[in-house]
C-alpha cells in the first residue's frame, strides 16, 4: 500500500534526503526538477521514493520547465515541489513570479552554494537571501524558511507545504550546501491528518465562483482544473474574476493583496528561536548553518562574561521586523554573521533604525565561519 | 432578412466568455476562426468540456485562453508546454490542449516543444502560425520566411525559419498536421481527431495577420491573404514533413502528415512505477 | 435542383432556408463572411457599429443555403445562421 511507504522512526541521512522525506510526509506527490549540485540528492531521493508512495517524478529539460511543471501539477490539485541551487534558482525566477501571481501553493528548495554564476558548485554559500525576497520582478511577498540541520529541514518541509497551502503562495526553503550534505540523525514521524493543511476549496458552485475573490484573511479559495469550475487565471494583472484588467486601479487592489496576505498574517508565519536574549547587550542574528556556529560563539561569550544572545531566524521572509525593532531598544548591537557580503544584515540595520548598531561578519563562501570569528565580533560590539 | 440584434445567442456562446466579448483580436485576425474551429472540435470529439484544460502562452494566440469558457491558464512566454505537462501528470484524466503561437512555441518555447514531443505526452498543441510576433508589433519570429519584412527585419529576413511539422515529427510527435484558417472543416476535424488520440498531437494553423505581417509584406487585406492560401495550398495527406517548408511564395503543403502510434509518457511511467510499488 | 441520382447524404446536406443573425457589437467589418459566402448572399452595408466598423447585410435571403460558412469563418463570432426548420447546420 502506497501510504505504508512513508517512513517513520530514526534515520541517519543528509539534509537533501531529509528534505525529500519531509515533503513526502507532508503529502507532496509531484516533483519536477533538474540535477544541480548540491541539490541533486533531493531529486534522486524523490525519484526513488515518489513512485513508492504513488506520486510522480519527472526530470524536466531545464529549471524553467521544472518550475512550470510544479505550478501545473499544483493546479491539478497535487502538492508539488522542486529543488535547485543558485544558477537554477535564477532560471526559476520568472515563473516563481507566475506562481506568486496565480497564487499557486508549491515549494521550491534552494540548497545554496557560493556564487555568483557557476561559483563553487560543491561548497556552501548564503548569497541568495535577498534574491529569495526580490529575485522575481514586480510586487509580491513570498515566505522563506531556513533550516540548520537535516532534522530541521525535514520538519520545515512539512511546515513549508502547510504554509503554501494555507496562504496560496510559493514557499522557499533556503537551505545551504552544508546542511544539505551533512548527515545527522533524523527522527521521522507520521504527520497526523489534522496537522496537514490543505488549500481552501471553493464554497460557491461553478457559475458563482470567481478564482480571486478573497476571504477575510485575504486568501481566495482555490479551485483546481477538471472539476467544472471553468475558471480562467492569468499572469496578467487581473480582477477577482481572474480576467485581465489593464488599469492602475486593478493593479493597486491586486498587488496590495498579494503582499498584504503575507504581511497581515505574519504572526502566524514568522518563526524565531531565541537563546539568552532577555538581558542581552549584544544579539547575534543568524540563520542556516551559520546559526549553529553562532550558538557556540554566544555560549563562549557568555562564559567570558559578555551578555550575548542569539536570534536564530527560521523564517527570514517575511522578515521578523517587529522582534528586531523591539530588541533594538534593548541591545547595544546586533552581530550578523552570514556567508555573503551583507544581505540579511541590511534588514537588521533597517529595523534597528539607528537604535543599535548592526555589525556584519561576512564570509564570501566556500566554508563556514569559525566560532572565534563571531566571538571576536561580539567582543568588538560591546566595546 | 438580416437581423442585426444581439438577443439571439451565437451557437458558440456556451464555450465563450461572453462577458468579455468583443475580443481584442484585429479585424480579419486568423486566431478567431481557429478558436471557432476548436470550439466546434470539442463538440465533434465528444470530450467532456469540464475535463478540458486549455493552456496558452503569450501573444495574440495566447489570448485565446481568456476567451473560452473552460478551465484555462494564461501562462508565461514559452512555458505553456511544461505547465501543461505538470497539469497532465497531476491529473491524467484531464484533456490538455495548448493554444499558442509560432514565437511562443518555437522560439522561447522551443526547448519545451522538442521535449514534450520526445516524451509523447498526451496533449494537443494548436500552433497558430502567423509568421511573426503580432502582439508586440510584427517582429520576426522562428517561422518568418526568408526575405520577408518585419519590424526587426526592415531589409528582409535573413534568419532561416523552422519547418515546424518536420521539427515536431522528428522529435517524436505521433500526430502532425498543418491547415490554414480557410481550411475550416479540415481544421475542425483535425483538432477533434487530435484531442481524442493519445500522445503528442501538433496542429500547425497558418493564419493571416493583416495588421502587421500582412501589411508589411504587402499581402493585401485579410481576404486577400485567405485567397492566397487557397491558391498556394495543396492538400497532401501523408506527405513527408521535411518537404513542408514555407517560403514567401510557392506551394504550401497542408494536410495530415503524421498519424502513428507510440507509447505515451504515461505508459512508460506506469510500467516502471509498477516495479517500484512491487518492492 | 434536379438530380438523376440521389447522393447518400442528400438529406444531411440539403439546402435549408435560414435566417442570418449579425451581432453588431462583435463585428469588426473584416468582410470574410461577404467574401467567402458561396452564393454571394451577403454584402457590405453602409451601416456602422459603435466602434466604427462597417457591418455586412444579407443582400438576398433566397440565396442563403444555410451552409454556415459565415458562422465558422467569422473571427469575431459575430454572425450565424438559424435554419427555419430548426435544425443545426454546422
Descriptive tags:
heterotrimer, B: 279 residues, alpha/beta, Rossmann fold, C: 90 residues, Alpha-Beta Plaits, two-stranded antiparallel sheet, 2 helices, elongated
Set out the fold topology.
The complex is a heterotrimer of chains A (383), B (279) and C (90).
Chain A lengths: L8 E6 H12 L3 E4 L6 H10 L6 E4 L3 H13 L4 E5 L1 H17 L3 E9 L5 E5 L4 H6 L8 E3 L4 H18 L2 E7 H5 L1 E6 L43 E3 L13 H16 L2 H4 L2 E4 L6 E5 L2 H15 L4 E6 L1 E3 L3 H10 L2 E6 L5 H9 L4 E6 L8 H12 L1
Parallel strand pairs in A: 2-3, 2-4, 4-5, 5-8, 7-8, 12-13, 12-15, 15-16
Antiparallel strand pairs in A: 1-9, 5-6, 7-14, 11-13
Helix pairs in contact in A: 1-2, 1-6, 3-4, 10-13, 11-12
Chain B lengths: L30 H15 L6 E5 L7 H4 L3 E4 L5 H11 L4 E7 H5 L3 H10 L3 E7 L34 H8 L3 E6 L3 H13 L3 E7 L6 H4 L5 H11 E3 L16 E8 L5 H14 L1
Parallel strand pairs in B: 1-2, 1-3, 3-4, 4-6, 5-6, 7-8
Antiparallel strand pairs in B: 5-8
Helix pairs in contact in B: 1-7, 5-6
Chain C lengths: L17 E5 L9 H5 L5 E7 L5 E5 L10 H5 L5 E5 L7
Antiparallel strand pairs in C: 1-4, 2-3
What's the short version?
The complex is a heterotrimer of chains A (383), B (279) and C (90). Chain B has 279 residues and is of the alpha/beta class.
Descriptive account of the structure:
Helices cover 38% and strands 21% of the residues of chain A. Chain A is built from 13 helices and 16 strands. In chain A, the strands form 3 sheets. In chain A, strands 2, 3, 4, 5, 6, 7, 8 and 14 form an 8-stranded mixed beta sheet that branches. A 5-stranded mixed beta sheet of chain A has the order 11-13-12-15-16, sandwiched between helices. A two-stranded antiparallel sheet of chain A has the order 1-9. Chain A is globular. The relative contact order of chain A is 0.12. The mean pLDDT of chain A is 97. Chain B contains 10 helices and 8 strands. Chain B has an 8-stranded mixed beta sheet, with helices on both faces. In chain C, 38% of the residues are buried. Chain C is built from 2 helices and 4 strands. The mean pLDDT of chain C is 88. Chain C is elongated, with a radius of gyration of 14 Å.
